[in-house]
Fold this protein.
Amino acid sequence: MTVYAGQGDAHRSLALLWGAPEEPRAGRSGPKPGLSVEAIVSAGIAVADAEGMAALSMRAVGERLGRTAMALYTYVPGKAELLDLMHDRALAELAIEAAGATEGAGVTEAAGVAAPADGWREAVAAWADDLYACYLRHPWVLQVSQARPVLGPAELAAMEALLRALRPAGLAPSRLRGAVAALWQFIRGQAATTADARGAAAATRVSDEDWWATRSARLAELAPDFAQRFPLLVALRSTGGGAPQDTHREAFRTGLAVLLDGIAAGATADG
């Protein structure tokens, strides 16, 4: 299930995202005490975290708050605008400094980590770890398409933090754009794989270990020459191991290191 951000009213959505004062609306009474945009967004995230994106609706959010769906519309125009707010709120959990903060001489701040100017790899890795963990806390965020950004303050601050972390690498603009896209999509992809693995075990009630054991035994019966036909696959598989969550985490760290090696090589070429 893929959903697209920015499908609501642009004027209202951006005003809510950026905390603009509410404008009077003819024909509607003012908000009743006891509800707020913040409370509605929190309830929406709780619904999506617990039940997935498919369960998200204004009615479900209202029920979690003990209100009707109609009671929410005074605060949030509809589900499309709510989704934008939820997405940006999730990214607000990232441990980044406010966009536009002053950088000290020779120091870059990203993902809550102060790094020397030549320590950009550590800063980017910390940022990546933080984003990866955020996606796994809120896997529904991975179903929000990146085709159109939300343009909220937290989303833009996350991008600003990555650019700030990469600045000491000295990449040319074209390489920088490519590095940012590659990093963001890699993190989303790895988080999606991990989230899918967790979801598969829960939905099918079959663990990854049992699933692989059953199919590996059957493959051995059907293709006794499997190792001769696919020697590289067998060799690669034999070097892995450990619990599935450890395997996913190792794949993330190793893939990230490869990407950072490539960025470093590009920075050298540009230099």
